[in-house]
Every structure is written in structure tokens, then in C-alpha cells.
């Protein structure tokens, strides 16, 4: 079936819907709903059989829904209405939520229901929930609705009537409701408010005489102080006292002044800069033990012969400093007596490569880009050259650019079924590094590597498996991924073949070193990256700025609007067709859950 996706941005869910529909043999095009562009005209041009809106913040014009069946994905259970569904779900501590596919109608969220799927609400931030449980439920609902539509006979359920569900319309969740009262609010309340607003819009607050949006929030169990007082720093985050404890806040964004330049998120310590008073730095050891009582972005645990080094950086972005700390932890983990080391395994983003915000804020972004790319390359090199144990990348959430290549450096790549991979760089104007010229062709073959890079399209987990980009798809929910990978890793460590694989690994690497040393790949990649970083006119600098400041694209990027014919679905396995189109250039990060 020919399906047109209409979206406010080609965001994570739209990417996943696109990839998974094409996996099932549909032809799919995307049209971004942008100011100054007629949606009706675009729909006429595409002439789809079905219009589907995975993430649309504006109403579908009557002209469109009266001529075509238009299905809207609403991130709430049946009867829920309003623009801040997930925010309210977290704010009100719902433990069960859902996603409903509705037919577009005169009134927003009031149309007939084509499918509705429930999902749990674990204690995580909104964007994590959105990319995890909500995305899984949305896919199930979308695929069910598309199948029902394809029958030509299915009659969607009306929302009203005697058998209808109770309707609950909730307003936009604004800052007056989100506001933290530091003199009154407990840690639990503060964390809940921060989670409901993360990653966007954040909670607007006053701090050290300035106005800041607070992003992210994690309870601290030991540090105490006067409510509202800043207590400590750790890895770029600040710790602030509540009435009964304290919370760690990793990132801040300055409130934009009227007429002032756009602001963007930065690690809290960097954002506050000289305004920050002298505070104790509460560092953890390089290999922090996995425990819940305090916040750390890197954790380690061991279970028998298996080490688990997990990490979780906001937005999947890895700054120079974060790469270096992770490399230190990786080296420590490699000093432990394990035969399998699992890298990753947390929920949400695995990695999205170098930290474009930190680079943008640097005095010399070119120099910081260079430092960051070398720091991530050092980490990749350490993984690539580990010969005394098997390394497994456990990709629990989405990954892009250098973040995908970091995963590929391991001996095996395991990926959660709901993950979307973007194994390319060109939308950021980069040639790419992280040893991709070494690892990617080795995994998928030179032709597929070239195609992935050129097309710059996201890839579903099923397609990634079919391509050989990953070795295993772990079919589970986000909350179960760590336990599932733990069990698989224990089995891997117990296999008699594992010891011989480790021995063979060393021989192979020694053999490769004499033929085509990995270092030579890095050198060639970095020579091209350096030219880009040093050239102020290179598109990378403008693309990065636009990405960081969330500029809206002026039009639908051509590679999304095009309607490539989906390759035929192979008969075997659930993995059928390669994924599809990528982000507009650049992403405007426009989500349902963002403040306007
Ligand atoms: N540096 C800094 N921030 C990044 C980032 C990076 N490399 N990658 C993602 N983020 C942030 C986004 O700004 C966004 O922040 P927000 O939640 O505050 O809005 C958040 O992570 C999620 O990204 P978003 O673009 O909204 O998610 P998406 O699912 O729509 O798209 C990507 C995901 C990875 C395709 C897109 O973020 C992207 O293209 N990132 C850049 C990848 C890259 O070029 N890396 C550098 C080369 S190694």
C-alpha cells in the first residue's frame, strides 16, 4: 500500500513507523507539516491510499481528511485528549497508559478509533518513555490499524455513544503547573516534575540569579542541605537540596531573552560557568558500582564471568569528557577477571556520537570537534583492540552516526527489537570517523556500507539483523532489556566455544594488523574530518548550529519526500526490508512533548 506519513518532524517515532512499514512491503513517503506549505497540495501530489500522522502537532485540514482516510497517532489511551498527554501521565503518576490511532476529524483527538494499545509507565523521563514503551505500543497500534484499513471492511469504533469511553480533555501542561517549590517539594515530587518535562521543555526555575530550564532529574540518597541549596557537582551535573533529600540535575538551558539568540542545553556546570559558586565535586570511582542510591552516567556490575559496563548520556551525546571517562571505565572493566564484557544495556539511546551542543558552545568549535572525535575514536579503538575477552554491544535504544559505529566495534552487537539505527553521517555534513571504514564494510559488505552511508536512512532492528549490522535482535520491552541481555551474556560466557573465540580473536587482529592495520583507517578518516572541522565554510558548522538550536527545516528534505519503492520482502524471518528515510537536515527535535 502507498502510505504518506505526515509529521511535524521526522522524529524517532516517525522514523520507526517509516522503517517498519517499509519492512512490511509498503511504499512510504514523508511530508513535513511546515509553515507556508500546503498539506492538501502535498497530499494531492503523493496520491496515497492512506495518510498516517505518527507525530503531528497541527490539525489535519478538512480538505485532506474529507478526501482521504487520515490516521492520527495519539500518545494516550482511548478517551484521552489534549496536547500534553505524556506529560500528564507522568505528572499524575499513571502506571498504565496507552497509544490510540484515531481517524482525523473536525475536532482534535475526537475521531473514530482504529486501534488502541496499552503500555506500562515505568519511572523514567518522558522522552525515554516516548522512545520506549510508547513507541512500542504506537507501532503495534499503527500496524494493526493499517491492516484493518487494508481489509476495506473494518469499521472504526466511535468515541461517543453509550458504549463509548469516558472522554478526558486536558490542557497544555504549562510552567505554572511544572514549577518546583524548593521550600515545599519533596525529592519524589521534584523528580516527578523533572521527568514529566524531560527532555523538553524542561522545568523553568530560578538559579543563581538567572532563569534556567532544568533538564533531567535523579534522586540522591545521601547529600542533604537547606532546601533549594546547591550542594555538589558530579560529571557536569549539579546536586540541589529538596525538603527531604536532594536531586542531581545533569543539564540546563538558559531562558531565551526576547530578541536574544537561541539557547540550548548544556551540562549544568558548563552552562552556569562562572556563576557557579565553589562546590565540592563528588566524583565516583572510574568504575562506579551499579546502585540506585545516587546518580552516575556510567555504571559497572559483574555477574560471574560477565562484566556489564552501562552508560547513559542525555540525548545519547558523548562529549570529550564523557568519552574519556567512559574509556577510563572501559579500561578498568578490562582489568577485571571476566570473559565477556557487555557494553551498554541501558534503556533509551545507546549513543548518538559526538556532543554537538558542547561543541557549539566551545570558544573554538572546530578544535572541540577535533578533541571530541579523537576522544570517541580512542574509545572505539580500545573496544576494537580488546583481545582477552569477548565484547558485546547491547543496544537497548536508538543509535546514530558515531554511536552506531561505537557499537560495531564490539565482537557482537545485540539490539532491542524497538531500536532504530542511523548508520551514517552525511546529514551532519561529516565524512565520519569511529573506524567506520573498517567496521561497517566488514559487517555488511562494501556495497551495503556505501548504500547506508549514501542513502542516510534509518534502519529498523529487523533490517539491521538482515543486513548483518547487528547479530541478534532481543525481542522485549525496554525495561526487560538489561535482564534479557544479562541472561544471554551468561550463556555466551558459559559456551565452550567462547574461550576458543577469544584466542582466535587475538590471532585475527594480529593478522589484520600486518595487512590493513585499523590505525590506518582512523588516520584516513581523521584527515578528512580535520579538513571539515578547520574549514569555517564547511556545511558541517551551519548544519550543527541548526541542529543544536533546533531550526525548523524550510521544506521536507528531498530524500524523505521521495517515494522509493520498497525492496521485496524476503520470505524468511521477521526481518524483511531495509529501513527508510532519515531526519530532515537537520532535526528540529519537534516532539509532541515539546513546549511550543
Ligand atoms: N549531540 C548533541 N545532542 C544530540 C545529539 C548529538 N550528537 N544527538 C541527539 N541529540 C539530542 C537532540 O538535540 C535532542 O535533544 P532534546 O531531547 O533536548 O530535544 C535529543 O538528543 C534527541 O534527539 P532528536 O533529534 O530529537 O531525536 P530523534 O529521534 O528525532 O533523532 C538522531 C535522533 C540521532 C537521528 C538525531 O538526533 C541526530 O541526527 N543526531 C545527530 C547525530 C550526529 O550527527 N552525531 C554527530 C556525528 S558522530
How would you describe this protein?
The protein is an alpha/beta fold and 596 residues long. It has three domains: 2-169, Formyl transferase, N-terminal domain (Rossmann fold); 180-275, Formyl transferase, C-terminal domain (Methionyl-tRNA Fmet Formyltransferase, Chain A, domain 2, Roll); 298-557, 2-enoyl-CoA Hydratase, Chain A, domain 1 (Alpha-Beta Complex), CATH 3.90.226.10. It is built from 20 helices and 25 strands. It has a six-stranded mixed sheet, with helices on both faces. Strand 12 and strand 13 (237-241) form a beta hairpin.
Rg: 24 Å
Structural class: alpha/beta
Q: Uncertain segments of ≥5 residues (pLDDT<50)?
A: 563-596
First-last Cα distance: 34 Å
Bound heterogens, unique: coenzyme A
* CATH architecture field of the largest domain: Alpha-Beta Complex
| CATH fold node name of the largest domain | 2-enoyl-CoA Hydratase, Chain A, domain 1
Helix fraction, binned, reads: 25-40%
Number of strands: 25
Q: Give the integer mean of the pLDDT values.
A: 92
Strand percentage, roughly?
15-25%
What is the overall shape? globular
Structure keywords:
globular, 20 helices, single chain, alpha/beta, Methionyl-tRNA Fmet Formyltransferase, Chain A, domain 2, Rossmann fold, six-stranded mixed beta sheet, 596 residues, 3 domains, binds coenzyme A, 2-enoyl-CoA Hydratase, Chain A, domain 1
Quick summary:
With about 600 residues, the protein is an alpha/beta fold. It is globular, with a radius of gyration of 24 Å.
Amino acid at each position: 500500500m502507498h502510505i504518506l506519513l505526515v509529521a511535524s518532524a521526522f522524529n524517532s517515532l516517525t522514523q520507526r513507523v517509516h522503517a517498519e512499514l517499509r519492512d512490511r512491503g509498503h511504499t512510504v513517503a514523508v511530508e513535513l507539516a511546515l509553515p507556508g506549505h500546503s498539506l492538501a497540495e502535498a497530499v494531492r501530489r503523493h496520491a496515497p491510499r492512506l495518510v498516517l500522522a505518527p507525530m503531528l502537532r497541527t490539525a489535519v485540514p478538512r480538505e485532506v481528511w474529507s478526501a482521504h482516510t487520515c490516521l492520527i497517532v495519539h500518545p494516550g489511551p482511548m478517551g484521552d485528549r489534549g496536547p500534553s498527554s505524556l506529560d500528564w501521565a507522568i505528572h499524575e503518576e499513571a502506571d498504565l497508559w496507552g497509544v490510540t490511532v484515531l481517524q482525523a476529524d473536525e475536532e482534535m483527538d475526537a475521531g473514530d478509533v482504529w486501534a488502541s494499545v496499552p503500555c506500562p509507565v515505568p519511572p523514567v523521563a518522558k522522552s525515554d518513555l516516548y522512545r520506549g514503551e510508547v513507541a512500542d505500543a504506537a507501532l503495534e497500534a499503527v500496524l494493526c490499524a493499517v491492516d484493518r484499513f487494508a481489509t476495506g471492511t473494518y469499521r472504526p469504533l466511535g468515541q461517543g455513544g453509550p458504549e463509548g469511553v469516558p472522554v478526558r480533555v486536558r490542557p497544555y501542561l504549562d510552567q505554572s503547573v511544572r514549577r518546583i517549590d524548593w521550600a515545599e517539594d519533596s525529592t519524589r515530587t521534584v523528580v516527578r516534575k523533572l521527568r514529566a518535562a524531560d527532555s523538553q521543555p524542561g522545568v523553568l526555575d530560578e538559579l543563581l540569579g538567572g532563569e534556567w530550564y532544568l533538564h533531567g532529574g535523579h534522586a540522591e540518597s545521601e547529600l542533604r542541605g537547606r532546601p533549594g541549596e546547591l550542594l555538589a557537582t558530579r560529571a557536569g551535573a549539579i546536586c540541589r537540596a529538596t525538603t527531604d533529600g536532594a536531586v542531581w540535575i545533569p543539564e540546563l538551558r538558559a531562558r531565551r531573552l526576547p530578541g536574544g539568540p537561541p539557547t540550548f542545553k548544556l551540562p549544568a556546570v558548563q552552562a552556569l560557568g562562572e556563576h557557579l559558586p565553589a562546590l565540592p565535586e563528588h566524583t565516583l570511582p572510574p568504575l562506579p558500582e551499579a546502585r540506585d542510591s545516587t546518580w552516575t552516567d556510567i555504571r559497572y556490575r559483574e555477574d560471574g564471568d560477565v562484566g556489564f559496563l552501562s552508560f547513559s548520556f542525555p540525548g545519547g551525546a558523548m562529549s570529550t569528557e564523557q568519552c574519556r571517562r567512559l574509556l577510563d571505565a572501559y579500561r578498568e572493566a578490562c582489568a577485571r577477571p571476566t570473559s565477556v564484557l557487555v557494553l551498554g544495556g541501558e534503556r533509551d539511546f545507546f549513543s548518538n556520537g559526538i556532543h554537538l551542543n558542547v561543541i557549539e558552545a566551545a570558544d573554538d568549535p572546530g578544535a572541540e570537534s577535533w578533541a571530541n572525535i579523537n576522544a570517541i575514536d580512542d574509545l572505539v579503538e580500545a573496544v576494537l583492540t580488546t583481545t582477552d575477552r569477548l565484547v558485546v554491544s547491547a543496544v537497548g535504544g536508538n543509535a546514530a552516526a558515531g554511536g552506531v559505529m561505537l557499537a560495531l566495534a564490539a565482537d557482537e552487537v545485540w539490539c532491542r527489537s524497538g531500536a532504530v539505527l542511523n548508520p551514517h553521517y552525511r546529514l551532519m555534513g561529516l565524512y565520519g570517523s569511529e573506524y567506520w571504514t573498517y567496521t561497517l564494510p566488514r559487517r555488511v559488505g562494501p556495497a551495503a556500507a556505501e548504500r547506508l552511508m549514501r542513502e542516510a536512512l534509518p534502519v529498523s532492528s529487523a533490517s539491521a539483523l538482515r543486513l548483518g549490522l547487528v547479530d541478534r535482535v532481543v525481542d522485549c520491552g525496554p525495561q526487560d532489556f538489561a535482564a534479557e541481555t544479562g541472561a544471554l551474556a551468561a550463556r555466551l560466557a558459559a559456551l565452550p566455544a567462547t574461550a576458543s573465540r577469544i584466542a582466535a580473536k587475538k590471532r585475527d587482529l594480529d593478522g589484520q594488523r600486518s595487512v590493513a592495520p585499523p590505525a590506518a583507517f582512523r588516520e584516513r578518516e581523521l584527515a578528512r574530518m580535520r579538513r571539515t572541522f578547520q574549514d569555517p565554510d564547511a556545511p558541517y558548522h551551519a548544519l550543527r548550529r541548526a541542529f543544536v538550536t533546533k531550526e525548523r527545516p524550510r521544506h521536507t528534505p528531498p530524500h524523505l519526500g521521495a517515494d522509493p519503492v520498497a525492496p521485496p520482502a524476503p520470505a524468511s524471518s521477521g526481518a524483511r526490508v531495509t529501513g527508510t528515510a532519515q531526519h530532515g537536515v537537520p532535526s528540529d527535535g519537534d516532539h509532541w512533548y515539546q513546549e511550543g
